[in-house]
Amino acid sequence: MIIRYPVVSAFKPNGLSTVCISCFLQTTRGPSRTITRNLSRASSLRAIAAPAPAPAPAPRLRDGYFSTNALLEKARNVSRRGALTSIVPETASIANGNEASKHATFTPPPSTQDLPHRRRQAARRAAKELAESDLVLPENSSSKLTENASSQPINSIRRLIPILLSLSKPRLSVLVVLTAMASYSLYPVPELLSPSLTDTPSLSTLTLFFLTTGTALCAASANAFNMLYEPKWDAMMSRTRNRPLVRKLISTRGAAIFAIISGVVGTAGLYFGVNPTVSFLGFLNIALYAGVYTPMKRLHWLNTWVGAIVGGIPPLMGWAAAAGQSATQAGDWKELLLGEQNIGGWLLAGLLLAWQFPHFMALSWAIREEYKNAGYKMLCWMNPARNSRVALRYSLAFFPICIGLCYYGVTEWSFALASAPVNIWLVKEAVRFWKLEGHKGSARGLFWASVWHLPVVMILAMVEKKGMWQRVWRAVVGEPDVDDGDWIEEDEEEAVLSASARQVKPDVRAAAIALPTK
Length: 518
Fold this sequence. Notes:
- This protein has helices at 21-28, 70-81, 91-103, 116-132, 141-150, 157-167, 170-186, 205-229, 231-234, 252-273, 276-296, 303-323, 333-337, 343-366, 368-374, 379-382, 384-396, 398-407, 414-418, 420-436, 442-463, 468-477, 484-501, 506-513; strands at residues 2-3, 37-38.
- It has 518 residues and is an all-alpha fold.
């Protein structure tokens, strides 16, 4: 079957002698909108397609939906160009085209606008794939700094600073400093040190400066020692293969010098700027992380518990730094860390210790194969069921810890209520992680829940600090915290009564009575 096109060559020279009158009259009419088909097989007839008028703007099916004939597509292209004077090939050429069209495969052009239900189906498929996908960890900050350093000139300060920052693991070091600062600010200030009774702030900003600087340097030292021990195995993991020692951007000697100087300066700053107890805790943090946790990662899966203890030390450092300013005795470690008045510091340390398990168990599950290939003993690949149980167990520990902070006077009782939603969210994700053992996106859900959980809980604790809003209200209204005159009179009466009851010497009694009165 051949397509016969309308005659368009009637006005050619000697065209009138070869066309009948009916065909001639057809050429004088307007362009045909359709392409006619003729069943004749005569080889001498010609077919010409006339251009169709521009169609009205209306929705239509995609081009090529019904176009299974290559000749029809060719006719459309000719009509769009308005080729009124083009000569249609002879019958032999059309026959050849027909023969080629039989073997040609037609590929419909891609749709530029899918139907609404197709878009909804694609969105549901994408959401399902995302929900069931494994956790994709955010890019490592040390890797970013290493990439930046590698593009800088050799032996330049712009190259050295990113390398040293990369050795210190900046995100981890910042987290350590923030937890120490939060614990420092949550220490309950005694009434004798409240700003209304003294000329200086209750907690020294200079002490806070030495605390943050010294803690940051100690964290940088511990992280640098960690990288010094593991360059061989860091090269086997995607998250650590861009570290500066792996890429040989700094020598082992240079990294060791940085680690030693940071540790010495950090512990010295804590010793002279804060107190010896905090300095010892900073040194203990370096020793445990670099000397115990790092080599233990290749020996036993209990290394995670050692790392959690390391993470719980910074809140104790902040608490001891604040307690040292109100110490009334020798100010040794027993007074700063032991006793009922310091239970709040241990609760904050327990909060950080418990938080690390759901966070790390979810994180390590995402890269369990890399840990296995590198030879690190982690529960994520050695015992996935226990890995998920540990995450759930320590997620449940936040409820008694938050209630304990309220009970021992660190925060108001409203903190237990305010922290309940975020604690429930973490437990919900931990239960899902336990049931699915990390599959179907449960590891990703628990990881991001833990990322948001810690800052929310710490901020709520600082907002709900015991007595803070009462002091703010009194400062706004203008009421004094304590009536100084009444406080002095009460002390005078107590001194006199105790002197008479204990039968003290007359001169001591007279001195007590002679105290100035209001």
